[in-house]
Amino acid sequence: MKDDHYLARILGRIHGRGYKAYQDLRGSYQFNQFTLHVDHVQRDPYASPSHLRVEVEDHHYPPHFFSTSIRRVALEDYIARSFQRSIHAHLTRPRGSGRSGVMRIDAGGQEILERSCVNINPENLEIRFTLGLSAKGRKIMGEDTKKILVEILPHIVDDSCFFTGNPEVESHLHLAEDAQAIREELYIEGLVAFIANGSTLPRRSGICSQPLSGAVPFKSPESLRISLNSPNQGLITGMGIPEGVTLIVGGGYHGKSTLLQAVEAGVYNHLPGDGRELVVTRESAVKIRAEDGRSIQKTDINSFIHEPPFMKSTKEFSTQNASGSTSQAANIVEALEAGSQLLLFDEDTSATNFMIRDERMQALVKSNQEPITPYLDRVQELYDQEGVSTVMVMGGSGDYFEVAHTIIMMDCYQPHNRTLEARKVAQQIPTGRSREVPYPFSYRHRTPLKESINPYRGRRMKISNRGKDTILLGSDTIDLSQVKQLVDPSQTRALAYALYHAQKYMDGHSTLREILSRLEADLERKGLDVLSPPGRENPPDLAGFRPFELAAALNRLRSLSIK
Question: What's the pTM?
Answer without folding.
Answer: 0.95
